[in-house]
Write a structure and sequence with these properties.
By secondary structure, the protein is an alpha/beta fold. The protein has five helices and five strands; from the N terminus they run E-H-E-H-E-H-E-H-E-H. The chain has a single domain, classed as Rossmann fold (3-Layer(aba) Sandwich), CATH 3.40.50. Helix 3 links the parallel strand 3 and strand 4. The radius of gyration is 13 Å and the shape is globular.
Length: about 120
Amino acid sequence: MGNSSVLLVATSVERTYQEVEAALSGDYDVVRIQAGKDVIEAIHVHEPAAIILDLQIGNMGGVAACLEVRLESRAGRISDQKVFLLLDREADIFLAKEADADGWFVKPIDPLALQHLVVSETINQ
């Protein structure tokens, strides 16, 4: 059973993490990882209610990490996950759709809009 209060955030950018934490820490315990390759292990450890992946995450970007989450879920090695991507520009929405993300947000982060997106998608999970 997932921990409904944990939000996993994967970003190597401190400011991005701080903005997400400020927007969502009232609703979730925000756990940060700084490498896309660590997402699957972190899912096993924290069983998050949702995952936010920054498009730019060091060695493995958000799109690749999202695809890996989807593959692992379909193979039955992890439970279904709500995955959101933080995009750098509008043109990246194509990538988010191709990665089968549940939602996305184009930076700069609007705290209220991000909170609405994530909370509305996870409340009935």
